[in-house]
From TrEMBL:
Superkingdom of this protein's organism: Bacteria
Pfam families the UniProt entry points to: Peptidase_M19 (PF01244)
Descriptive protein name: Dipeptidase
Species: Natronobacillus azotifigens
GO molecular function, one term: metallodipeptidase activity
GO biological process, one term: proteolysis
Length: 308
């Protein structure tokens, strides 16, 4: 059993009108998903920056509609995950789908828009993508500014609603501002800076802060976050897993593939159906307890929203 905390299928459903049931365009479609060991998949609402600002929220609403109408509602074996109890209730023949938001640029400076997305099922909110927005700077901004007052208001709402605050893509200063304020913290998809230096990877200081806060963070399959080699292999990914464990992250770690957000892939890890290749290699180096924690237990135990 595996839980994957990040993919960009909704972008392709919206942008390319891909067929979720079975499509060569998708690294995660229903046919591949059913064949894989992935029990629960998180689907991110990501609205590209080139979409005009006045249209971004409408596109986010459209992606939320596509999540429910194209991924969940047509298939009896796919269950919408709203809270931790939903994860525990999944039957042996059922899959779980979680809706997330990648970047608060879509809400502008209107907290009611975030409330609406939460009401539609969003259960993790990435504060930024790479650019600045009304909440905070992203990692791609030179000034590297931290949380704004509106950003503090956003985190306060997420705390109140028991929603994960996702710190992937955020500026370095914003990361530590958010760590201090957020109650439920994740970094859904990123690797270790000391293993391979990429601006999107986590520094030792960030890893320690996440571990200290008992947060959740996901190893990602983006090859250029993993290694500088021309052909990146699964063993290169294992180095990041081992590093996080060595830094005390065994009870915090999981997977956040970023499938359908990448075109280049790690060798033998090209789509969701290739997860068995990863699990086979993981089994060579880690204990059964470590594998269970990383594969699904950490995610379930830290899922913040509980049933009312």
């Amino acid at each position: 059993m595996v839980i994957d905390a990040h993919c960009d299928v909704l972008l392709k459903l919206w942008q390319d009108h891909a067929d979720f049931e079975s499509s060569e365009q998708l690294q995660v479609d229903l046919k591949k998903w059913r064949k894989s060991p992935v029990k629960v998949q998180c689907f991110a609402i990501f609205v590209p920056e080139e979409v005009p600002k006045e249209e971004q929220f409408d596109v986010a609403l459209e992606m939320a509609r596509l999540f429910h109408e194209k991924i969940v509602e047509p298939y009896p074996d796919v269950q919408f995950i709203s809270n931790q109890q939903d994860l525990h209730r999944l039957g042996d023949d059922q899959l779980g789908a979680v809706l997330t938001l990648e970047g608060c640029h879509v809400i502008g400076n209107d907290i009611d828009k975030l409330k609406q997305l939460i009401s539609l099922g969003v259960r993790a909110v990435g504060l930024t993508w790479n650019q600045a927005n009304a909440v905070c700077d992203g990692i791609g901004e030179k000034r590297g500014a931290g949380l704004t007052r509106f950003g503090e208001e956003v985190i306060d709402l997420l705390n109140k609603e028991s929603i994960w605050t996702d710190l992937s893509h955020i500026s370095y200063q914003g990361f530590f501002d958010a760590i201090e304020r957020a109650r439920y913290i994740m970094a859904s998809h990123g690797n270790a800076m000391e293993v391979y230096p990429h601006r999107r990877n986590l520094s030792d200081e960030q890893i320690q802060a996440l571990v200290n806060r008992d947060a959740w963070f996901g190893i990602t399959f983006v090859p250029y976050f993993t290694s500088g080699k021309k052909i990146v292999e699964i063993n290169d990914l294992l180095k990041h897993i081992q590093y996080f464990i060595d830094k005390g992250g065994e009870n915090c770690l999981g997977f956040g593939s970023d499938f359908d957000g990448i075109s280049d892939t790690i060798d033998r890890l090209e789509d969701i159906a290739d997860y068995p290749n990863l699990i086979e290699e993981v089994n060579r180096y880690f204990t059964n307890e470590q594998i269970e924690k990383i594969s699904y237990r950490n995610f379930i135990e830290k899922f913040p929203r509980l049933e009312n």
